[in-house]
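Researcher: Last one for today. Full complex below.
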Amino acid sequence: MGNLIWHEYARFTSITASIYAVWAAFFGLFYRKFFWDFIGGTLRDPGGLQAPPSAAIFVSIIVKVPIVQMITIVLGLFIIALEFPAPPLKALAIHRSIVLRMVLLLFQSFLAILFYQVCPADLNV
Amino acid sequence: MGETWFQREFLAPRRLIFNVVFYGIHFGLFAYGWYSQATSVRLAGLNTLGFSVWTSRGAGLVLAFDGAMILVPMLRNIIRVVRPKLTWLFPADENIWFHRQVAYSMAFWSMVHTTAHYVNFINVERTQIRKQTALQIHYTQPGGITGHFMLLIMFAMYTTAHHKIRKQAFEVFWYTHHLAFFFMIGLYTHATGCFVRDSVEPDLVSYFPFYSTKHCLGYMSWRFTIWPGIIYFGERVYREYRARRATRLSKVLVHPSGAMELRIIKPSFKYTAGQWLFIQVPELSRFQWHPFTITSAPEDPYVSVHIRQVGDFTQGLGERLGVGPSIVAAMTQAAMKGAEKNEKSASRGDFVELDSGAAATPLPAVRIDGPYGAPAEDVFSAEVAVLIGAGIGVTPFASILKHIWYRQKRGTLGTLRRVEFFWICRDAPSFGWFQSLLQEVEAAQADPNFLRINIYLTQKISEDMLWNIAVNDAGAEYDPLTLLRTRTMFGRPDWMTIYGQMRQAVESGQYIPGSKSQLKTKVGTYFCGPGVLAKAIKEATVHNSSSAVEFTFAKEHF
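Model: Here's the assembly. Have a good evening.
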């Protein structure tokens, strides 16, 4: 078998997933929806699924103010900058850190799974 | 390199035409899909969702087109048959390039389509135009399931198809790309759920295709896009059948330069000079097919390929045959030192034949699939053939030169009067097997003017080597580097001068005896090698064409 250099493949993977996450989070700014609102949510006609009161915290940071989406965009852009790499980051030690990448990608998938658009990005991560 | 993106994409006429037609079709389909959705009376309900529906429908139509086109360049056998008739229309050799273009545009439109649908479904949920939640559409209906599934497959296929990954581990790319089978199934079934409809509930029926066309108003594009898929599948089955026909590895020769020559006997295998084949050694890997250029002429009673042990497959093959890299390295070193050099035979040692009977292990079974690629028959329709091989691109000319030699013997050369062969390489020794072939061909020439071999060495040579050459070269019958009668030239060839001189020689009638009676001399150039060089040569051919001499140029992708 050939020698697949895993970290190079991982680089393409995380670039693809991050670009998707940024793009999806951008749309999440305009169409705000808490992904898990079907758990205990009520379906209104018209109006769609309303998240249960227990999820009020998520509603406030995703639907009322799209904080999660914004963080996802920033995080995604940072990962892209780290992976490509952007010239200022290339010189730094964090560019070589695998641990940092793991943490960033975990954060990204956690944030992305919260709102509606980005679930496929999670599959990919 | 040297040229900007704009120059490459828009200032080359053929590329410009391609871009206009290819992207024109895409945007045309998108516009049509958009328009037909936006003006559809029956789908007025869906149209209340606005732009996102129009976008997703337009992009969906484009993707149907791409889904059909992505397989077309992969129909290798059909391309091989239609290629000679259609070279004027499209460069059929560029099939992988075209495949990539379709893939790029597929990725883009998938992004448009998916984004639009995500907006659609959230709006469906909010307005409750259908009594469903976005989640249900995404993960319980055929369209949503196959769509996400296809995105996941695309993600795997695109990331492993990156050229870096392909170079590192071709198998990873090769196996992952076979997910295309499931991708295609997903594509054909993507719209089965009666998704685009004018009724509230899907109008499904119990017989094929399981939806009624009365209320289901999708494009039903699978009716068209499935055909390339069926043909491709049929072709793969045919290739498998063909590969299983009787094949025997009859001989393995190891050349001093380290190349293994595999001589394979397969009576059902018909090919022309300059083509290539896939080879499989089931003992090493049951699924891998590796491409190699055929180096034997069609007249030979066998099919041969020359294999250098450079990758893991070829090294594995060497080990299996008992000539692993270490043995070959020793042989090569000995050959390079000239230890076996014999002035009388003027060659760097002879090849070693691996005897199948005496060896402890019998030769492995092999399977070959092919032939593919460009037949070089049109060499014989020109008066003068200029064959230019650069680097590894020289391999197909082995077969062509041998073929010319056979036809010369039979006296069936057609209009061909002279052959100019150019070989440009960085370091000659690595292509030692080719030298020995050239020696044979050169030695067999009765007419010294028929075939002229020009070898250019572009590598920087050290001072030691320079003096070595200077000392050995003077007065020697054979060139010290290549052991050919032809002298090696150093540096890069100046194509303008070469073609200019050739034109003058032809025009003054010195080049081809008796050519004055002819109105026009056709000089065909056949090139195989990197694109930058191709451009320089093409310019030279265009520049030097005159009323008496017609230079043509063909870049071959063997």
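The CA atoms of residues 3 and 9 of chain A lie 11 Å apart. Chain A has one domain: 2-124.
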